[in-house]
């Protein structure tokens, strides 16, 4: 729900874009390669030995091999190479910041070599065009073990799929009404189109042995203690559900809302024209969510979008590529300024924000004393996600050792509680990347399998 | 009203033998042409329309598609197929077309007219008739009357014609080569070129037979027996005629190395030391042509490259060759013809003491690791894989292990990143003939 913006006009009423333009503004940002483009691009791959791109891939995809398979027109083979390392290879092909991962380390990413091989788009080509008779992966003989997975986001789905493949029964407990986690609710709409997140989960579930129960929220209607008792193992992939607050007066005022909440609605709507649009808006933050928010607001028809960050461009966590997307959409970037006061009208609605200019003083971010104001109909916050406090509130969950806010795990993805594992954004080593979450889920599944098999053998 | 007429800058007179200040003209076994680039006897030279377009484009000569006895040959539908490389690049080309399927009368009439209209260009007529003197005695005067500059005997066509006792059926039999050549010299007064088939074990035998028969020159190679690919859905080779296929004749860049060896074999043969050679086989660029000429060709014939790209390719061939010749100081084709022959020898004469080793230019290296894995898996384990402090890869040649095989240089994707550096060994030249390790050595 975008209720904090109920007083604002809809995209249709703002009327910057007609319905067709609006629809095309949210179609594929990077159109897929045609068959011919894929052939040409695949042949640019040098089939490196011990390839740097593989080292850079958090999910260990054998990139030179799948590209060679594409070049030989063996699309199913290519897809299987990708999916056996990363069952969500289709969404990772769309959302991975390849410019800082595989493509950055591609040996052709030198001036003399023109540009890196377009690995992400090739991966998408293989996963878009695969055609299997039935699911490509088969389940091992049943182990008789049953594992609970909390959260049907990338980490949970990846873990569940691998566990099912290894012969275990899996039940996933998902708080929302749909699976997919951020793939379904949190990715910019033009990065994943045509209901891809849902289709991908359908494909993943084809392996069998995985049941998903929806509306099951840890800390609300679900307790870790119960899961711990009823299942042979538990994998926690809770994500980071809470948006950090600014800590200023007026944070609940109409006109101010967390970017992820808006994006969630934007992702799910069938009618882009009905979405509330702030003609002038401010986005606070410097990550990819901030960029996604600012860009999408511009594409909905906002005329003045300003992204404000308290440090300099070089410290922004959004990649250069993402920043370029925002700039290309007319987003203005203001750096070295931090929120100072939410400006409200007499109806207590947001009319803008006052910022305090900042500078770096011997490594410490310090206000300079100067302030300035930006007028806006809405302010979106994208200053990071945190733990949904309630989710780890039951007595068992409260015992989990933490690393700061996040759950502490060892290198086997084990938490401090026996038989309880965790991965994805909710654990400390997380990089807040989909591909990293998939890898956590996969590796945790192997760790769980190893422990369960050892236990069975000992019994 | 005045009409503006001008020659676009850089557009040269297509028939001028002097290009970029270099004289490209040749006198090949008495046949004069403004440049050594000729079109081989094949579909592009089937009729006046194509040949005139070729001359207009600047080709120095044309070998008219093979004439035969009446009635003319009949061709099948679906005739060509290809061996592809990456990105649909045609590496090799295959055809099952026969000799001309037009009447002898029309061909002779067109040849006469074209020669009259283009007196400065070489026009050679390819001929293939049955292996008896009457057949040759009948056709040769008709060809002589056209005014064409010479004939080329098609003794190499590998498909269709051998079944009729012609083409490769003759070219594979040295006695028949000699006999047919002899009849041609007897019934035709101008130069006779014998086109040799590569579908034999020793190309020199055919060239020697042609010389014995009185040939003025040889041309080679004709196409190689081939099947380029199989349609795996229908289990039939390409080109597919109905539900069947047959082997064809292979040409295009893939055959160039085979053709060059055969040209060099004849050029090096003490039995045919001065026999003029028209080089054929995968010539697509000026560099290919220069290489054939360096191995002894006096002219070169092109077909596949023109078929894939049109006649315009000759412009760059002439331009590139002449610029290179000017740079090297060669003032004629003759000046560098056979230049590579003295250095082309038998293995046993190579210097066993010569040593070269690979050197990797670390500034050019893109760290792909191809040299490493190639050497490690399939050669002499002479490249070390190291990791720099910043995590970068570094590949270094282990000099004492390197045998100088060139494999790393070949698999490296970057130009000049890996070079082979000759080593000062301090040892004298030593051929295997004289090597003490050779049990059959020639005592020096």
UniProtKB/TrEMBL annotation, chain B:
PROSITE patterns referenced in this protein's UniProt entry, alphabetically: 4FE4S_FER_1 (PS00198), 4FE4S_FER_2 (PS51379)
GO function term, MF aspect, one: iron-sulfur cluster binding
Top EC class, one word: oxidoreductase
The UniProt record lists the keyword Iron-sulfur: yes
UniProtKB keywords: Iron, Iron-sulfur, Metal-binding, Oxidoreductase
Source organism, top-level taxon: Bacteria
EC number: 1.3.1.1
Family annotation (SUPFAM superfamilies): 4Fe-4S ferredoxins (SSF54862), FMN-linked oxidoreductases (SSF51395)
Residues of the 4Fe-4S ferredoxin-type domain: 356-385, 393-423
Family annotation (InterPro entries): 4Fe4S_Fe-S-bd, 4Fe4S_Fe_S_CS, Aldolase_TIM, Dihydroorotate_DH_cat
Catalysis performed (reactions): 5,6-dihydrouracil + NAD(+) = uracil + NADH + H(+); 5,6-dihydrothymine + NAD(+) = thymine + NADH + H(+)
Record has Oxidoreductase as a keyword: yes
Cellular-component GO terms for this entry: cytoplasm
Family: Belongs to the dihydropyrimidine dehydrogenase family.
Purpose: Involved in pyrimidine base degradation. Catalyzes physiologically the reduction of uracil to 5,6-dihydrouracil (DHU) by using NADH as a specific cosubstrate. It also catalyzes the reverse reaction and the reduction of thymine to 5,6-dihydrothymine (DHT).
NCBIfam families: PRK08318.1 (NF006183)
Subunit structure comment from the entry: Heterotetramer of 2 PreA and 2 PreT subunits.
Protein name, entry field: dihydrouracil dehydrogenase (NAD(+))
The organism of origin for this protein: Vreelandella titanicae BH1
Lineage summary: Bacteria, Pseudomonadati, Pseudomonadota, Gammaproteobacteria, Oceanospirillales
